[in-house]
């Protein structure tokens, strides 16, 4: 019998809100891949291709700004509604969270 009930059980995913502060963890970085001629997110033994939206989000992600502040900066830059941008930003960071490529505080 297993004495550790947490073995084999996925941890509960942290909910991301406008107040959440995302940061790239140590070992994860944006990289301009010259071979593939595209920008990627590099992590230990993983690579994630980034599209224009992802690049824009990561360009204003500094580990100090909240999701709301990131969304407001992007809404100003692209003249778009903050609530629409924030939903996209949350979705992006949820995907990174699920791949363990972002830290959330």
Descriptive notes:
By secondary structure, the chain is of the alpha+beta class. Helices cover 35% and strands 18% of the residues. It has helices at residues 52-59, 67-78, 82-98; strands at 22-23, 29-33, 38-43, 46-49, 103-104. It has a 3-stranded antiparallel sheet, with no helix packed on it. Strands 1-5 form a two-stranded antiparallel sheet. A hairpin with a 2-residue loop joins β3 and β4 (46-49). The chain is globular. The chain starts with 21 loop residues before the first strand and ends with a strand.
Shape call = globular
Class by helix and strand content? Answer: alpha+beta
Number of helical regions: 3
Question: How large is the radius of gyration?
Answer: 16 Å
The end-to-end distance, rounded to whole angstroms, is 36 Å
Would you count the extended β strands for me? Answer: 5
Describe the sheet with the most strands: 3 strands, antiparallel
Overall pLDDT metric: 91
Query: Which strand-content bin applies to the residues?
Result: 15-25%
Give helix % range.
Answer: 25-40%
Tags for this entry?
105 residues, alpha+beta, 3-stranded antiparallel beta sheet, two-stranded antiparallel sheet, 5 strands, 18% strand, globular
List the helices and strands and how they pair.
Elements: E1 22-23, E2 29-33, E3 38-43, E4 46-49, H1 52-59, H2 67-78, H3 82-98, E5 103-104
Antiparallel strand pairs: 1-5, 2-3, 3-4
Helix pairs in contact: 2-3
Please summarize what this structure is.
The chain is of the alpha+beta class and 105 residues long. It is 35% helix and 18% strand. The chain has three helices and five strands; from the N terminus they run ββββαααβ.
């Amino acid at each position: 019998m297993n004495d550790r009930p947490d073995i084999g059980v996925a941890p509960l995913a942290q909910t991301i809100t406008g107040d959440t502060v995302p940061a790239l963890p140590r070992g994860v970085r944006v990289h301009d891949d010259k071979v593939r001629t595209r920008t990627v997110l590099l992590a230990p033994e993983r690579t994630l291709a980034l599209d224009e939206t992802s690049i824009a989000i990561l360009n204003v992600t500094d580990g100090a700004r909240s999701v709301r502040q990131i969304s407001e900066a992007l809404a100003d830059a692209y003249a778009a509604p903050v609530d629409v941008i924030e939903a996209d930003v949350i979705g992006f960071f949820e995907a990174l969270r699920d791949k363990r490529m972002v830290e959330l505080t």
